[in-house]
Amino acid sequence: MAKLWEGRASKAVDAAAEDFNASIRVDSRMARQDIRGSMAHAAMLGARGIIPQADADRILAGLEGILADLESGALAIDMGAEDIHTFVEGELTRRVGEAGKRLHTARSRNDQVAVDVRLYLRDEVEAVRSLLRGVIAALAGQAEAHAETVMPGYTHLQRAQPISFGHQLLAYAWMFRRDIGRLNDAAARMNESPLGAGALAGTTYPIDRCATADALGFDRPCANSLDAVSDRDFAIELAAALALVMTHVSRLAEELILWSSWEFGFIALDDAYTTGSSIMPQKKNSDMAELMRGKTGRVYGNLMALLTVMKGLPLAYNKDMQEDKEAIFDSFDTVKACLGILAPMLATMAVRPENMRRAAAQGFINATDLADYLAKKGVPFRSAYKTVGRIVADCIREGEVLETLPLARYQEYDPVFAEDLYQAIDLEVCMRTRLSEGGAAPDSVRAQIARLKEEFQL
């Protein structure tokens, strides 16, 4: 296929160099976006009288036919083409003749690819947002079912205070909600049109950049032609947002792995999302969660790759920037794959409240509530803290727990202890009375779920 830049060169490019230079294997996925951008550009050229309207009409009809044939499978992309722009323009010219050669008037591949990437990533952002909403829905569903299921909350991976399993899950729902916000912010900054910036300096033709921006759903044209073609901040920003999505996926995956182990036994992942061992017949491995945890490093690497590609580039376009697409496309592919598995894996997991309750009964996770009991009786909290620390140490040595230590023993530590202390340190009571906004009380958990349901129409 002829090159769009043929004319100056005196001989063909070396075959290995040509393959090295080509990007069709990566950018072919932007065929729809490339055609949409070309249609908006052709319509503007015709409307402004830059090319004859009849030629603009032929170009539009040809592009519509190419798109229809690609979607139906009647036309296959030629992987021998240099890039998707070369393929589309070459196929258009084959179909409509000389009119097709007018399409690239007042345009460069530099602003063309910048438009294609923004359009493509805009669609990808919406796909990830939808998947994140699905994960939030799965978390909210399980949280609603377990708003009163007591489990130990942890700090430093040590049992700390009683919470509900629902409260624990909702922590992740709020993380993913922030991820949606970050994607929205990045997408809003990305939604400016580079089309019409040309190679770097704009064009001498009387184009209408606002018309093409409107036709493609952009908020406005990019303000500076140099910046328009050399900017890849949007790809880096989206890669960073996706890296944070994977941070949250990985943290949740880690907990699912721990909770499903024999040592915890808090949950059982559905067989549809686990595998077995080739040698140990008793094994049920949380491979999907482990893969999510592992693929996080891949998405981090893509972010670092993009930052490194862009860090020393002079203005304007440089061929280095061809490397942007593979990294950001892979990040979106990886995140979508993980989220697509995570939502049903969460929705189908079996929860084992009895094991959570048993773990909560150990580890003195109601010690803070005992100190609060003394503080509410007038004992300064720091003094109460030290007293309870002594009680816990003695209980460990004597094989007791706070719930079974006799009142007489309590009163040896402080005479303000009374029979009502046992009610104060009951695990369910400890959880239910954490009524501060965002706290672990079931009413707080249900209020959080209601907010999520309203915001995301779950």
Describe this structure in words.
- This protein has 458 residues and is mainly alpha-helical.
- It contains 19 helices and six strands.
- It folds into three domains: 91 residues, Orthogonal Bundle (Fumarase C, Chain B, domain 1), CATH 1.10.275; 245 residues, Fumarase C, Chain A, domain 2 (Up-down Bundle); 98 residues, Ribonucleotide Reductase Protein R1, domain 1, CATH 1.10.40.
- The chain has a two-stranded antiparallel ribbon with strand order 1-2. Strands 3-4 form a two-stranded parallel sheet.
- α8 links the parallel β3 and β4.
- The longest helix has 37 residues.
- The model has no long low-confidence stretch (mean pLDDT 96).
For the biggest sheet, the summary is: 2 strands, antiparallel
How do the strands line up in the largest sheet?
Answer: 1-2
Shape: elongated
Q: What fraction of residues sit in β-strands?
A: under 5%
- CA radius of gyration: 30 Å
Distance between termini? 50 Å
CATH topology of the largest domain: Fumarase C, Chain A, domain 2
List the helices and strands and how they pair.
Layout lengths: L14 H7 L2 H4 L3 H17 L5 H20 L11 H13 L12 H37 L4 E6 L2 E7 H26 L1 E2 L15 H7 L4 E2 L3 H6 L2 H27 L7 E2 L18 H24 L13 H25 L1 E2 L1 H8 L6 H10 L4 H18 L8 H7 L7 H4 L2 H6 L9 H15 L2
In summary, what is this structure?
It is built from 19 helices and six strands.
Question: What structural keywords apply?
Answer:
458 residues, mainly alpha, Fumarase C, Chain B, domain 1, Fumarase C, Chain A, domain 2, Ribonucleotide Reductase Protein R1, domain 1, two-stranded antiparallel sheet, two-stranded parallel ribbon, 6 strands, elongated
